């Protein structure tokens, strides 16, 4: 079952026990989002190939898409995006991430976004599955708020509760062009902030809990941004609205809850890798050994050039030639543009 349907049908609250006085505390979890999921008008489900492509775009040279921030916008005021954990973690592992849940890659992960009408600022919450029961549905204890028009300061202003503590995530290698540092901030959801605030954690415990909580939401954001970039390309990503009327009539007759409508989104058709025979070197230099080259993204005006990950060098089976994929994006109708460089390389 899709993660969106599991959240919409979840009725089990997330309850924890205070170890000090044994009192019960209801925290904001998947069940609290059931109503919002039902009312969400735009739901996307990424197929495995598109999941791998978005992850590669996000992490091949780091999570820096600030050079494309003027092209980013959320396509609706409420949007749900979900994908399978397996291909996501497989691609992440290629770029140095360690899978702490190696036996849990059969689950699903999703992002719920609430934005302004322009799609340039809003709130983000992530969800994932740990098993088949309602108790195995997880919602991030932290939420992210973003503003793609944020300046060079310390990040966007919070949309509400300005006194609440916020956290930042940055890529030290990206420096000032890191979109997570410039356009995103993170904070605990209200009930979780109260829960940890009463926990009397030591500074080391607070830092450890905060890092773990940040990891559940921050790691999915670059993939979401890559998807929005691809979604804005001309003519857009291949997609298919799933027709569930007949299935839902049968489910209703058998007493089951109808499934939610959603749109399945597929990867664009990319050129195949072409093998080439490795001939003798025409120079006196030693031939380059066969090696893997990570992909990277280049922005030139309204076009994005994606150098796909490829093999380079020589081997008995020959070499694999690299290919470049070009996407053209119509500039969105919103005021202000960030970093209007003619040629900005995303590491």
Structure description:
- The chain has 347 residues and is of the alpha+beta class.
- The chain folds into two domains: 3-265, no CATH class; 274-346, no CATH class.
- The protein has helices at 3-9, 34-39, 48-59, 85-94, 179-183, 190-197, 203-218, 221-231, 245-253; strands spanning 14-17, 24-27, 42-46, 78-84, 108-115, 121-129, 137-139, 142-147, 184-188, 239-241, 263-265, 274-276, 291-293, 296-300, 303-307, 310-312, 319-321, 324-328, 344-346.
- Helix 3 (48-59) crosses helix 8 (221-231).
- The longest helix has 16 residues, at 203-218.
- Residues 273-283 and 335-347 have low confidence and may be disordered.
Poorly predicted parts: 273-283, 335-347
Alpha carbon gap, first and last residue? 36 Å
Mean of residue pLDDT values: 80
- Helical/strand content category: alpha+beta
Biggest sheet: strands, sense, closure?
9 strands, mixed
What would the principal axes of the Cα set say about the shape?
globular
Helicity, in percent? 10-25%
Taking all Cα atoms into account, the compactness measure Rg is 22 Å
So how many helices?
A: 9
Domain unit count:
2
The number of E-state strands comes to 19
Encode the helix/strand succession as letters. Answer: HEEHEHEHEEEEHEHHHEHEEEEEEEEE
Question: What fraction of residues sit in β-strands?
Answer: 25-35%
């Amino acid at each position: 079952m899709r993660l969106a349907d599991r959240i919409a049908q979840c009725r089990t609250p997330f309850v924890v026990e205070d170890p000090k006085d044994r009192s019960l505390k209801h925290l904001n979890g998947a069940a609290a989002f059931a109503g919002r999921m039902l009312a969400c008008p735009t739901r996307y489900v990424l197929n495995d190939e598109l999941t791998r492509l978005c992850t590669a775009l996000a992490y091949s040279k780091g999570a820096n898409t600030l050079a494309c921030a003027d092209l980013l916008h959320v396509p609706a005021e409420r949007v749900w995006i979900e994908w399978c954990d397996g291909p996501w973690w497989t691609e992440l592992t290629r770029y140095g991430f360690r899978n702490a849940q190696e036996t849990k890659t059969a689950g699903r992960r999703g992002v719920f976004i609430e934005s302004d009408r322009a799609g340039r600022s809003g709130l983000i919450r992530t969800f994932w599955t740990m098993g088949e029961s309602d108790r195995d549905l997880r919602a991030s204890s932290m939420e992210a708020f973003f503003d793609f028009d944020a300046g060079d300061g310390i990040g966007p202003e919070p949309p509400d509760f300005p006194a609440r503590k916020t956290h930042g995530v940055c890529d030290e290698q990206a420096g000032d062009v890191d979109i997570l540092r410039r356009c995103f901030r993170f904070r605990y959801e209200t009930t979780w902030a109260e829960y940890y605030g009463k926990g009397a954690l030591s500074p080391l415990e607070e830092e450890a809990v905060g890092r773990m909580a940040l990891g559940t939401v921050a790691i999915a954001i670059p993939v979401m941004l890559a998807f929005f970039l691809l979604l804005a390309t001309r003519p857009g990503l291949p997609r298919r609205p799933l027709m569930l009327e007949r299935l839902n009539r049968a489910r209703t007759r058998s007493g089951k809850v109808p499934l939610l409508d959603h749109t399945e989104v597929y990867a664009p058709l990319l050129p195949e890798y072409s093998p080439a025979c490795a001939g003798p070197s025409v120079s006196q230099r030693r031939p380059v050994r066969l090696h893997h080259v990570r992909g990277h993204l280049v922005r030139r005006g309204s076009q994005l050039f994606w150098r796909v990950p490829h093999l380079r060098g020589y081997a008995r089976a020959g070499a694999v030639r690299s290919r470049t994929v070009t996407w053209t994006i119509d500039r969105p109708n919103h005021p202000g543009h960030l970093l209007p460089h003619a040629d900005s390389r995303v590491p």
